[in-house]
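Marked as duplicate of an earlier ticket. Keeping the data here for the record.
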Amino acid sequence: MKFEYDPSADALYVRLGKAKILESEQVQPGIILDFNEAGKVVGIEVLSVSERST
């Protein structure tokens, strides 16, 4: 598992494995899931992180 934060984009990305990303889907505003070819989540992107944290 790998965490990356981009302060200029205010975005957090969590990579759950090394599998190739086949498709992505926005499941809520600012929350994007990346899926591999088996349909399993391999990445999570959270936009506007500073607005979501307390």
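See parent ticket for discussion. The chain has one domain: 2-52.
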